[in-house]
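Study this chain:
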Amino acid sequence: MNSRIFLLLIVLVIGAFSCTVSKESYSLRAEKRKAERLASQVAIKKAIESRRFVLKMDKIILPDGLMVDLVPRNNFIIINGEIISVSLGYAGRSFGARQISGINFNGRTGRYLMKSDEAKGIYNIQVEAITPNKDKFDIYLTLGENGYCSASVNNSYIQSVSYRGILVPLSPENVSYSIRK
């Protein structure tokens, strides 16, 4: 009987010790996640303010309001200073002789207006993108410091279309393309 009580006491002590260790490790993991999230928000904020970011779009919002996954997932808007590169799927009406199934161009930014709401951690940006053959696209971006973004693209040849995705800061190592003037 004594050995059973002793064994039960040992099990209780080990259990109490392991619960204390797991609470401490949970707390450390939570602090680590919080620090990583804060570092990510700082990097995203710096990328937005320096105009060096990639918007990876994974959803398109159709004219009737239906949100559809973009497949394949290589739909993007890259802004690197004065240079803009766009490759997006398109589903909507075309106002030209040919049917348009994608928005693809490399160009330069003309007008670039940025307004920030520090309290909400949101940036609203209006970009006028000019292609080498002088087509103009108006792109309206809503970027969050948390990494989520939305974009609306307007042009005289297409119906306005909206996208949802994530923002990734551009690093100097992964930039290697040029634009014709």
In short: The longest strand covers residues 102-117.
